[in-house]
Design brief:
Subcellular location: Cell envelope
InterPro entries: Redoxin, Thioredoxin-like_sf, Thioredoxin_CS, Thioredoxin_domain, Thioredoxin_ResA/DsbE_sf
Main location: other
Structural class: alpha/beta
Strand content: 5-15%
Number of strands: 7
Distance between the termini: 111 Å
Pfam families: Redoxin
Oligomer: single chain
Strand order of the largest sheet: 2-1-5-4-3-6-7
Protein name: Thiol-disulfide isomerase/thioredoxin
Order of helices and strands: HHEEHEHEHEHEEH
Helix content: 25-40%
Length: 218
């Protein structure tokens, strides 16, 4: 039998390099392994910035009209959606608040230029419509504070709700653009989704008359 032989001096450096490379591979794998604990984020993904909470003073300063109160059980595609009222921060069961009366929901955001042009027309239309139908703004961005500031700057006092998750847009099947107006029948069904900017008060009145059968003198 032959005696066991030691690795030759020529092979020892190669073994050391191979071992070092293996250690580096293991260390890299550990560093990149997905984390599931709640205190971490995925590598390369910045932490989401949460908008600051809105104070009661900010809400009062905006001077918005109160959100419509629930008038019955909600029905239709908007049933089950609860949003925050911009005027006071209270929860709003959307379908229940709209029940029994036709409604125009205007989806907008503080950064949307065409929305700023359209909102004054909607406010004037709502003034002329009175109790015939509900006109409600739906802010489709998480920054509620900027929504209040924008409405205040435009002189808009329409009732409005905060919809950071775009729940209304999803329920109505609307595209991810702004502004969008959703026309809702008194029974909660959706009559029309208007993916455009209304030109003026007469344009809104004509559309409401055609889609909802509610005629408002302008």
């Amino acid at each position: 039998m032959s005696e066991p032989t030691e690795p030759s001096p020529i092979r020892r450096p190669a073994l050391r390099w191979a071992l070092a490379a293996l250690i580096l591979v293991i260390a890299a794998a550990v560093a990149l392994w997905p984390r599931t604990d709640s205190g971490t984020t995925n590598p390369g993904t910045p932490a989401a910035r949460q908008p600051a909470a809105v104070s009661a003073e900010e809400r009062a300063a905006a001077g918005l009209a109160p959100c419509p109160a629930s008038t019955g059980p909600g029905a239709g595609p908007l049933a089950g959606i609860t949003l925050t009222c911009l005027a006071d921060g209270a929860p709003v069961d959307l379908a229940a608040a709209l029940a029994g009366k036709p409604a125009l929901l205007n989806l907008w955001a503080y950064w949307c230029g065409p929305c700023a042009v359209e909102l004054p027309h909607l406010q004037e239309f709502a003034r002329r419509a009175g109790p015939e139908l509900t006109v409600l703004t739906v802010h489709s961005d998480p920054d509620e504070s900027k929504a209040l500031a924008r409405l205040s700057g435009l002189g808009i006092t329409l009732p409005g709700v905060e919809d950071p998750a775009a729940s209304v847009r999803t329920a109505a099947g609307a595209p991810a653009v702004l502004p969008v107006s959703v026309l809702v029948r008194a029974d909660g069904t959706i009559a029309s989704v208007e993916v455009r900017t209304f030109a003026d008060v007469a344009d809104i009145a004509d559309t409401v008359a055609e889609k909802l059968g509610v005629r408002i003198a302008v």
